[in-house]
Protein backbone atom coordinates (compact mmCIF):
# COMPACT_ATOMS: atom_id res chain seq x y z
CA UNK A 1 0.00 0.00 0.00
CA UNK A 2 1.14 3.46 -0.88
CA UNK A 3 1.50 5.81 2.04
CA UNK A 4 -1.01 8.58 2.59
CA UNK A 5 -0.41 11.68 0.46
CA UNK A 6 -1.58 15.11 1.53
CA UNK A 7 -3.47 16.70 -1.34
CA UNK A 8 -1.51 19.81 -2.28
CA UNK A 9 -4.51 22.09 -2.74
CA UNK A 10 -5.67 24.33 0.06
CA UNK A 11 -9.10 22.96 0.66
CA UNK A 12 -8.86 19.40 1.71
CA UNK A 13 -11.85 17.88 3.36
CA UNK A 14 -9.81 17.60 6.54
CA UNK A 15 -9.23 21.35 6.65
CA UNK A 16 -12.88 22.08 5.99
CA UNK A 17 -13.93 19.79 8.78
CA UNK A 18 -11.60 21.61 11.15
CA UNK A 19 -12.98 25.03 10.16
CA UNK A 20 -16.63 24.06 10.22
CA UNK A 21 -16.42 22.14 13.47
CA UNK A 22 -14.95 25.10 15.26
CA UNK A 23 -17.82 27.25 14.03
CA UNK A 24 -20.43 25.55 11.90
CA UNK A 25 -21.94 28.81 10.63
CA UNK A 26 -18.64 30.41 9.73
CA UNK A 27 -17.84 29.71 6.11
CA UNK A 28 -14.25 30.58 5.18
CA UNK A 29 -14.33 33.64 2.90
CA UNK A 30 -11.37 32.56 0.85
CA UNK A 31 -13.01 29.29 -0.08
CA UNK A 32 -16.32 30.98 -0.70
CA UNK A 33 -14.67 33.49 -3.06
CA UNK A 34 -13.00 30.72 -4.96
CA UNK A 35 -16.19 28.72 -5.28
CA UNK A 36 -18.12 31.87 -6.29
CA UNK A 37 -15.56 32.41 -8.99
CA UNK A 38 -16.04 28.92 -10.36
CA UNK A 39 -19.78 28.82 -9.83
CA UNK A 40 -20.58 32.39 -10.89
CA UNK A 41 -23.48 32.57 -8.51
CA UNK A 42 -24.42 34.05 -5.20
CA UNK A 43 -26.61 31.47 -3.49
CA UNK A 44 -28.49 32.18 -0.26
CA UNK A 45 -26.74 31.57 3.01
CA UNK A 46 -28.74 28.46 3.84
CA UNK A 47 -27.45 26.66 0.75
CA UNK A 48 -23.92 27.26 1.93
CA UNK A 49 -24.81 26.21 5.42
CA UNK A 50 -26.47 23.12 4.08
CA UNK A 51 -23.54 22.21 1.94
CA UNK A 52 -21.03 22.78 4.68
CA UNK A 53 -23.04 21.00 7.31
CA UNK A 54 -22.94 17.88 5.19
CA UNK A 55 -19.41 18.44 4.12
CA UNK A 56 -18.27 18.75 7.69
CA UNK A 57 -20.42 16.15 9.36
CA UNK A 58 -20.84 13.23 6.98
CA UNK A 59 -23.41 10.53 7.52
CA UNK A 60 -22.57 9.97 11.20
CA UNK A 61 -24.57 13.06 12.14
CA UNK A 62 -27.80 12.10 10.41
CA UNK A 63 -29.26 10.11 13.27
CA UNK A 64 -29.28 13.19 15.47
CA UNK A 65 -30.40 15.64 12.80
CA UNK A 66 -32.73 18.18 14.42
CA UNK A 67 -36.39 18.19 13.39
CA UNK A 68 -36.34 21.89 12.47
CA UNK A 69 -34.09 20.99 9.57
CA UNK A 70 -37.27 20.24 7.65
CA UNK A 71 -37.64 23.97 6.94
CA UNK A 72 -34.18 23.89 5.44
CA UNK A 73 -35.17 20.99 3.23
CA UNK A 74 -38.20 22.95 2.12
CA UNK A 75 -36.09 26.01 1.28
CA UNK A 76 -33.61 23.89 -0.58
CA UNK A 77 -36.26 22.24 -2.74
CA UNK A 78 -37.91 25.61 -3.45
CA UNK A 79 -34.54 26.95 -4.54
CA UNK A 80 -33.92 23.90 -6.74
CA UNK A 81 -37.32 24.25 -8.37
CA UNK A 82 -36.65 27.95 -9.05
CA UNK A 83 -33.31 27.13 -10.62
CA UNK A 84 -34.94 24.54 -12.85
CA UNK A 85 -37.62 27.03 -13.94
CA UNK A 86 -35.01 29.67 -14.64
CA UNK A 87 -33.00 27.22 -16.73
CA UNK A 88 -36.07 26.33 -18.76
CA UNK A 89 -36.65 29.92 -19.77
CA UNK A 90 -33.16 30.09 -21.28
CA UNK A 91 -34.20 27.28 -23.67
CA UNK A 92 -30.91 25.57 -23.05
CA UNK A 93 -32.49 23.32 -20.48
CA UNK A 94 -35.14 21.19 -22.08
CA UNK A 95 -36.28 17.58 -22.21
CA UNK A 96 -32.80 17.02 -23.61
CA UNK A 97 -30.09 19.47 -22.65
CA UNK A 98 -27.82 20.25 -25.59
CA UNK A 99 -24.36 20.83 -24.25
CA UNK A 100 -22.22 20.80 -27.40
CA UNK A 101 -20.32 24.09 -27.05
CA UNK A 102 -17.58 22.96 -24.67
CA UNK A 103 -15.63 20.16 -26.41
CA UNK A 104 -12.50 21.15 -24.45
CA UNK A 105 -14.19 20.30 -21.13
CA UNK A 106 -13.77 17.19 -19.01
CA UNK A 107 -17.06 15.41 -18.38
CA UNK A 108 -17.81 13.39 -15.27
CA UNK A 109 -20.79 11.04 -15.28
CA UNK A 110 -22.25 9.58 -12.10
CA UNK A 111 -24.69 6.66 -12.21
CA UNK A 112 -27.32 5.68 -9.64
CA UNK A 113 -26.41 6.83 -6.13
CA UNK A 114 -29.59 5.52 -4.43
CA UNK A 115 -29.10 7.23 -1.10
CA UNK A 116 -25.55 5.98 -0.67
CA UNK A 117 -24.44 9.17 1.02
CA UNK A 118 -20.90 8.02 1.79
CA UNK A 119 -20.16 7.38 -1.90
CA UNK A 120 -21.72 10.71 -2.89
CA UNK A 121 -19.67 12.44 -0.22
CA UNK A 122 -16.39 11.03 -1.62
CA UNK A 123 -17.38 12.01 -5.14
CA UNK A 124 -18.41 15.59 -4.32
CA UNK A 125 -15.25 16.03 -2.27
CA UNK A 126 -13.30 14.86 -5.33
CA UNK A 127 -15.21 17.15 -7.73
CA UNK A 128 -14.63 20.21 -5.52
CA UNK A 129 -10.90 19.48 -5.59
CA UNK A 130 -10.99 18.98 -9.36
CA UNK A 131 -12.77 22.35 -9.78
CA UNK A 132 -9.85 24.00 -7.99
CA UNK A 133 -7.36 22.58 -10.51
CA UNK A 134 -9.50 22.85 -13.62
CA UNK A 135 -12.72 24.90 -13.89
CA UNK A 136 -13.43 23.39 -17.33
CA UNK A 137 -15.38 20.55 -15.86
CA UNK A 138 -18.96 19.28 -16.01
CA UNK A 139 -20.60 16.76 -13.71
CA UNK A 140 -23.75 14.89 -14.72
CA UNK A 141 -25.85 12.90 -12.21
CA UNK A 142 -27.78 10.25 -14.16
CA UNK A 143 -30.78 9.87 -11.83
CA UNK A 144 -31.89 7.36 -9.18
CA UNK A 145 -30.65 9.53 -6.34
CA UNK A 146 -33.35 8.36 -3.92
CA UNK A 147 -34.63 4.97 -2.60
CA UNK A 148 -32.85 1.73 -1.64
CA UNK A 149 -30.72 3.14 1.20
CA UNK A 150 -31.46 4.91 4.50
CA UNK A 151 -30.00 8.37 3.72
CA UNK A 152 -31.59 9.12 0.38
CA UNK A 153 -33.19 12.40 1.54
CA UNK A 154 -29.77 13.64 2.63
CA UNK A 155 -28.18 12.30 -0.54
CA UNK A 156 -30.67 14.26 -2.62
CA UNK A 157 -30.22 17.45 -0.56
CA UNK A 158 -26.44 17.24 -0.81
CA UNK A 159 -26.50 16.76 -4.60
CA UNK A 160 -29.05 19.57 -4.98
CA UNK A 161 -26.94 21.99 -2.95
CA UNK A 162 -23.90 21.04 -5.06
CA UNK A 163 -25.97 21.74 -8.18
CA UNK A 164 -27.21 25.09 -6.85
CA UNK A 165 -23.62 26.14 -6.06
CA UNK A 166 -22.39 25.20 -9.56
CA UNK A 167 -25.43 25.57 -11.82
CA UNK A 168 -23.41 25.76 -15.05
CA UNK A 169 -21.11 22.86 -14.26
CA UNK A 170 -23.51 20.40 -12.65
CA UNK A 171 -26.53 18.72 -14.24
CA UNK A 172 -29.17 16.42 -12.80
CA UNK A 173 -31.17 14.04 -14.99
CA UNK A 174 -34.28 12.12 -14.12
CA UNK A 175 -34.16 8.43 -13.19
CA UNK A 176 -37.03 5.96 -12.95
CA UNK A 177 -37.00 6.41 -9.15
CA UNK A 178 -37.60 10.16 -9.47
CA UNK A 179 -41.24 9.20 -9.90
CA UNK A 180 -43.90 9.44 -7.22
CA UNK A 181 -45.24 5.92 -7.95
CA UNK A 182 -41.74 4.44 -7.46
CA UNK A 183 -40.22 6.46 -4.63
CA UNK A 184 -43.41 6.00 -2.61
CA UNK A 185 -42.57 2.25 -2.55
CA UNK A 186 -38.80 1.87 -2.19
CA UNK A 187 -37.92 3.91 0.88
CA UNK A 188 -37.90 7.61 0.07
CA UNK A 189 -41.45 8.54 1.11
CA UNK A 190 -41.01 6.59 4.37
CA UNK A 191 -37.80 8.43 5.22
CA UNK A 192 -39.44 11.75 4.45
CA UNK A 193 -42.46 10.86 6.55
CA UNK A 194 -40.27 10.00 9.54
CA UNK A 195 -38.53 13.35 9.17
CA UNK A 196 -41.79 15.30 8.80
CA UNK A 197 -43.47 13.68 11.82
CA UNK A 198 -46.93 14.70 10.71
CA UNK A 199 -49.11 13.91 7.72
CA UNK A 200 -49.64 17.59 6.94
CA UNK A 201 -45.97 18.54 6.89
CA UNK A 202 -45.16 15.41 4.93
CA UNK A 203 -47.73 16.13 2.22
CA UNK A 204 -46.56 19.67 1.71
CA UNK A 205 -42.91 18.74 1.14
CA UNK A 206 -43.74 15.52 -0.74
CA UNK A 207 -45.65 17.57 -3.29
CA UNK A 208 -42.77 19.99 -3.62
CA UNK A 209 -40.21 17.24 -4.21
CA UNK A 210 -42.25 15.10 -6.60
CA UNK A 211 -43.18 18.21 -8.63
CA UNK A 212 -39.50 18.97 -8.89
CA UNK A 213 -38.77 15.38 -10.02
CA UNK A 214 -41.45 15.63 -12.71
CA UNK A 215 -39.70 18.61 -14.31
CA UNK A 216 -36.22 17.12 -14.54
CA UNK A 217 -34.75 16.68 -18.03
CA UNK A 218 -34.55 13.19 -19.55
CA UNK A 219 -31.12 13.45 -21.09
CA UNK A 220 -28.08 15.48 -22.07
CA UNK A 221 -26.34 15.54 -25.45
CA UNK A 222 -22.64 16.30 -25.00
CA UNK A 223 -19.43 16.67 -26.91
CA UNK A 224 -15.97 16.16 -25.43
CA UNK A 225 -13.05 15.96 -27.86
CA UNK A 226 -14.20 13.76 -30.73
CA UNK A 227 -16.79 12.04 -28.59
CA UNK A 228 -20.39 13.00 -29.12
CA UNK A 229 -23.23 11.27 -27.42
CA UNK A 230 -26.24 11.00 -25.21
CA UNK A 231 -26.58 10.35 -21.50
CA UNK A 232 -29.91 9.16 -20.06
CA UNK A 233 -30.93 6.98 -17.13
CA UNK A 234 -32.18 3.84 -18.93
CA UNK A 235 -31.71 3.41 -22.65
CA UNK A 236 -32.62 4.35 -26.21
CA UNK A 237 -36.21 5.39 -27.03
CA UNK A 238 -38.42 2.85 -28.79
CA UNK A 239 -41.92 1.46 -29.01
CA UNK A 240 -41.64 -2.15 -27.90
CA UNK A 241 -44.74 -3.23 -29.85
CA UNK A 242 -43.89 -1.34 -33.04
CA UNK A 243 -40.15 -0.95 -33.44
CA UNK A 244 -38.55 1.67 -35.67
CA UNK A 245 -35.25 3.58 -35.21
CA UNK A 246 -35.88 6.97 -33.57
CA UNK A 247 -34.32 10.38 -34.10
CA UNK A 248 -34.27 12.44 -30.90
CA UNK A 249 -34.91 15.71 -32.77
CA UNK A 250 -38.08 14.29 -34.29
CA UNK A 251 -39.72 12.99 -31.11
CA UNK A 252 -38.64 15.59 -28.57
CA UNK A 253 -41.46 18.11 -28.92
CA UNK A 254 -44.10 15.35 -28.58
CA UNK A 255 -42.61 13.68 -25.52
CA UNK A 256 -45.02 13.70 -22.62
CA UNK A 257 -42.39 13.27 -19.90
CA UNK A 258 -43.28 15.99 -17.39
CA UNK A 259 -45.51 13.69 -15.37
CA UNK A 260 -45.43 12.66 -11.72
CA UNK A 261 -45.68 8.97 -12.69
CA UNK A 262 -44.29 7.07 -15.68
CA UNK A 263 -47.73 5.46 -16.31
CA UNK A 264 -48.87 8.79 -17.74
CA UNK A 265 -45.89 9.18 -20.09
CA UNK A 266 -45.55 8.25 -23.76
CA UNK A 267 -43.66 5.03 -24.64
CA UNK A 268 -40.44 6.81 -25.67
CA UNK A 269 -40.09 8.64 -22.36
CA UNK A 270 -40.79 5.35 -20.58
CA UNK A 271 -38.07 3.44 -22.44
CA UNK A 272 -35.57 6.27 -21.96
CA UNK A 273 -36.11 5.91 -18.20
CA UNK A 274 -36.56 2.14 -17.93
CA UNK A 275 -34.98 0.12 -20.75
CA UNK A 276 -31.86 -2.09 -20.63
CA UNK A 277 -29.37 -3.24 -23.28
CA UNK A 278 -29.34 -7.01 -23.90
CA UNK A 279 -26.44 -8.53 -25.91
CA UNK A 280 -28.29 -11.89 -26.11
CA UNK A 281 -31.47 -10.49 -27.60
CA UNK A 282 -32.31 -11.91 -31.06
CA UNK A 283 -35.23 -9.54 -31.78
CA UNK A 284 -34.61 -5.82 -32.20
CA UNK A 285 -36.47 -5.00 -28.97
CA UNK A 286 -38.56 -7.06 -26.51
CA UNK A 287 -40.10 -6.88 -23.05
CA UNK A 288 -38.44 -8.89 -20.28
CA UNK A 289 -40.61 -11.88 -19.33
CA UNK A 290 -42.29 -11.48 -15.95
CA UNK A 291 -41.14 -7.87 -15.20
CA UNK A 292 -42.04 -6.41 -18.61
CA UNK A 293 -38.97 -4.18 -18.49
CA UNK A 294 -38.12 -3.21 -22.11
CA UNK A 295 -34.82 -4.42 -23.65
CA UNK A 296 -32.99 -3.44 -26.83
CA UNK A 297 -30.50 -5.36 -29.00
CA UNK A 298 -27.10 -4.39 -30.35
CA UNK A 299 -28.61 -3.78 -33.79
CA UNK A 300 -31.32 -1.49 -32.41
CA UNK A 301 -28.62 0.37 -30.50
CA UNK A 302 -26.36 0.77 -33.55
CA UNK A 303 -29.29 1.99 -35.67
CA UNK A 304 -30.14 4.63 -33.06
CA UNK A 305 -26.55 5.82 -32.74
CA UNK A 306 -26.01 6.11 -36.47
CA UNK A 307 -29.29 7.92 -37.07
CA UNK A 308 -28.48 10.49 -34.37
CA UNK A 309 -24.78 10.93 -35.15
CA UNK A 310 -23.59 9.69 -31.73
CA UNK A 311 -20.53 7.57 -30.97
CA UNK A 312 -21.02 7.21 -27.22
CA UNK A 313 -24.01 6.40 -25.00
CA UNK A 314 -23.89 6.62 -21.21
CA UNK A 315 -26.54 5.35 -18.80
CA UNK A 316 -27.16 3.99 -15.29
CA UNK A 317 -30.14 1.98 -14.09
CA UNK A 318 -28.70 -1.55 -13.90
CA UNK A 319 -27.04 -2.86 -10.77
CA UNK A 320 -23.48 -4.00 -11.49
CA UNK A 321 -21.54 -4.92 -8.36
CA UNK A 322 -18.31 -3.71 -10.04
CA UNK A 323 -19.97 -0.31 -10.55
CA UNK A 324 -19.87 -0.33 -14.34
CA UNK A 325 -20.30 -2.47 -17.43
CA UNK A 326 -19.05 -1.89 -20.97
CA UNK A 327 -21.19 -2.98 -23.91
CA UNK A 328 -20.53 -3.12 -27.64
CA UNK A 329 -16.96 -1.86 -28.16
CA UNK A 330 -17.37 0.60 -25.27
CA UNK A 331 -20.03 2.51 -27.22
CA UNK A 332 -22.48 1.95 -24.38
CA UNK A 333 -21.23 2.55 -20.85
CA UNK A 334 -23.39 1.54 -17.90
CA UNK A 335 -22.55 3.09 -14.52
CA UNK A 336 -23.67 2.20 -11.00
CA UNK A 337 -22.29 4.64 -8.45
CA UNK A 338 -23.38 3.13 -5.18
CA UNK A 339 -21.53 0.52 -3.14
CA UNK A 340 -24.54 -0.15 -0.87
CA UNK A 341 -28.03 -1.36 -1.67
CA UNK A 342 -30.87 -1.94 0.77
CA UNK A 343 -28.38 -0.74 3.39
CA UNK A 344 -25.88 -3.55 2.61
CA UNK A 345 -22.48 -3.47 0.94
CA UNK A 346 -22.84 -4.90 -2.60
CA UNK A 347 -19.56 -4.05 -4.31
CA UNK A 348 -17.81 -1.00 -5.68
CA UNK A 349 -19.15 2.36 -6.78
CA UNK A 350 -17.62 3.90 -9.90
CA UNK A 351 -18.02 6.95 -12.10
CA UNK A 352 -16.78 7.92 -15.55
CA UNK A 353 -14.25 10.65 -16.30
CA UNK A 354 -14.05 11.65 -19.96
CA UNK A 355 -11.16 13.91 -20.83
CA UNK A 356 -11.32 15.56 -24.28
CA UNK A 357 -8.38 13.39 -25.37
CA UNK A 358 -9.77 10.09 -24.04
CA UNK A 359 -10.48 7.71 -26.91
CA UNK A 360 -13.46 5.39 -26.69
CA UNK A 361 -11.38 2.25 -27.31
CA UNK A 362 -9.15 2.87 -24.25
CA UNK A 363 -12.04 3.26 -21.77
CA UNK A 364 -11.81 0.89 -18.83
CA UNK A 365 -10.91 0.79 -15.12
CA UNK A 366 -8.04 3.16 -14.33
CA UNK A 367 -6.43 0.73 -11.89
CA UNK A 368 -5.97 -1.66 -14.84
CA UNK A 369 -4.06 1.06 -16.74
CA UNK A 370 -7.10 1.88 -18.84
CA UNK A 371 -8.90 5.24 -18.95
CA UNK A 372 -11.98 6.83 -17.48
CA UNK A 373 -13.62 4.34 -15.13
CA UNK A 374 -12.83 5.68 -11.67
CA UNK A 375 -13.26 3.74 -8.43
CA UNK A 376 -15.00 5.56 -5.56
CA UNK A 377 -12.45 4.77 -2.88
CA UNK A 378 -10.73 7.40 -0.74
CA UNK A 379 -7.12 6.28 -1.31
CA UNK A 380 -7.69 5.62 -4.99
CA UNK A 381 -9.31 9.03 -5.55
CA UNK A 382 -6.47 10.80 -3.74
CA UNK A 383 -3.91 8.99 -5.83
CA UNK A 384 -5.86 9.77 -8.99
CA UNK A 385 -6.12 13.47 -8.04
CA UNK A 386 -2.37 13.68 -7.48
CA UNK A 387 -1.74 12.40 -10.99
CA UNK A 388 -4.32 14.83 -12.37
CA UNK A 389 -2.82 17.70 -10.40
CA UNK A 390 0.72 17.01 -11.62
CA UNK A 391 -0.45 16.66 -15.23
CA UNK A 392 -2.28 20.02 -15.02
CA UNK A 393 0.51 21.94 -13.30
CA UNK A 394 3.55 20.52 -15.14
CA UNK A 395 2.88 22.45 -18.36
MN1 LIG B 1 -33.06 2.93 -12.35
Task: Describe what you observe in this structure.
- Helix 1 packs across helix 3 and helix 5 (117-133) packs parallel to helix 6 (152-165).
- Strand 8 (285-287) and strand 9 (294-296) form a beta hairpin.
- The chain has helices at residues 13-22, 29-39, 45-57, 69-89, 117-133, 152-165, 180-183, 188-196, 199-214, 248-251, 267-274, 298-308, 378-393; strands at residues 96-99, 106-110, 137-141, 170-172, 219-224, 227-232, 276-277, 285-287, 294-296, 312-315, 324-327, 332-335, 340-341, 344-345, 350-354, 363-365, 371-375.
- The chain has one domain (13-231, 318-393): Purple Acid Phosphatase, chain A, domain 2 (4-Layer Sandwich), CATH 3.60.21.
- The two termini are 29 Å apart.
- The relative contact order is 0.13.
- By secondary structure, the chain is of the alpha/beta class.
- The longest helix has 21 residues, at 69-89.
- Helix content is 39%, strand content 17%.
- The structure holds manganese (II) ion.
- Residues 112, 144, 175-177, 233, 317 line the site of manganese (II) ion.
Distance between the ends: 29 Å
Number of helices, counting only DSSP H or I runs of 4 residues or more? 13
Q: Architecture in CATH?
A: 4-Layer Sandwich
What do we call the CATH topology?
Answer: Purple Acid Phosphatase, chain A, domain 2
